[in-house]
Amino acid sequence: MASVFASRMGGILVSLIFIPIYTRLLSPAEFGAVALLLSLQAFFLVSDLGLATILARDTAIARGDQVALAAATQDRRRGEMMVAVLVMLVALVALVVIALGGGPDILRDGIRTIVSTALVALLVLLNISQLCLNALGHYRLTGLLTTSGTLARAAVSAIVLARVEASVDAFLWSQFFVAALHYATTRAALDQRSGAVPHNLAQLLDRAALIRLLVRCKPVMVYTLGGAAALNLDKTILATLLPIRLTGWYFLAATYAMVPIGILSGPLNQYFAPRVAHAEASGDTAARWRLAAAFQLLLLPAVVLPAFILIREAPLLIPLWLHGTPNAPQIASLATILLAGTAVGATGYYPTTFLIAVADNRFLARLSAISAVIVLGVAAAWAAAGSLIGVAASYAIFHACGCIVQWWRLRQHWSRIQYRTFLLTCYLMPAAAMLLVCLIGWALAGMFATGWARAAIEATVQLLLGGGAMAILSRWCYRRSASLHRPILA
């Protein structure tokens, strides 16, 4: 599991170290444009027809079976071809629009469009390769490749901005070249560990196989598109309705709010997702229970404890992170609201993982599409009214409601007694214990110290008490499940 955590450190270091560097090297308007570019990259990264989810799940299930793994590898190559074709079509449409619009910078805009779409394609294909490599169980290698590639991309971009040219185009080109090298390395490592599967153009272009893959991806595509739109198009809306420098503020607040997910809960989900899928496919109910309990009991302290500290200490941490940026108080106000919502939403990672594992894709697609339309509409209304606080609050509510609905859906797959037992022992009681630990740490730290000393004491108390509480609850949870004389999961 340490390797999975390490694989996320590159993204965290980019957020903590390189994003503030970009803010200093670029003007507010240019950084707003870069923030918009990064958010659009994140949107298109998961707008992959649902291929990353489906292909990683197939690879996890096929692990250890060379015949099944060969079929999964062929499907992965078909998926890569689909992504390439889709991106070329998007680039073609964009170029036609630019040509029809005319203007003095038509050549520059055309080149920028081609490079941007090529970068998106590389990042999408890189994500698929990383997830499939992870699904094969090569966590250490994935962690090494992911961390080194992400840091290299950020560092080269910072060097180019500082030494060559501080512009959006310089940022874009540096990102593109390093991403190409990163993808080539990761793809080669994946092919080497997928077995000797020959490249067969006839099989790759098999119409029936392509149609089957598209049909399987359809509901997942709606789910991923809805989630990607909800989580990333808010910056595009803000850039359209508000001054672009405010988009930069919101981007920084959202980056801060994603720290607990990026460092702790995200890697946990990445580690457990292929195991949950494999256990579901094999029908191993004992393994299902162990994974469900371990996932949830590790997830809660990984979300609640750091989120509470980051919310409490945002006025102290954000100015330090942004090196005295004059807008730090406004960014901190937005970040605390967003962080509360993302923390609640992250506690629903297990239901999401389980629903994907059992292929409840139709429900996930409906939930994603409906929630995306609602939250983007509400966010646009708040942006039109000029309220960033309103936009942040709408997203906090969006995360919380999504968590509640997915926990409710989990009930449809389990018996009543199983669901109630799991909800009580692995969610409600641990969550209450973590909140109590947070309050105790806050009270003790406030009695003896202020500033950084208070934050250090609070974190130490929460770590010690939280670890002890989760150890006790884990033992009680397993004993409670054994008393039922049957697995928790249906």
From TrEMBL:
It is found in: Cell membrane. It comes from the Bacteria. The keyword Transmembrane helix applies. GO terms for cellular component: plasma membrane. The chain crosses the membrane at residues 5-25, 31-56, 83-102, 114-136, 220-242, 248-268, 289-311, 331-351, 363-382, 388-410, 422-445, 451-473. Its main location: membrane. The keyword GTP-binding does not apply. Keywords: Cell membrane, Membrane, Transmembrane, Transmembrane helix. It is a multi-pass membrane protein. This is Polysaccharide biosynthesis protein. It comes from Sphingomonas dokdonensis.
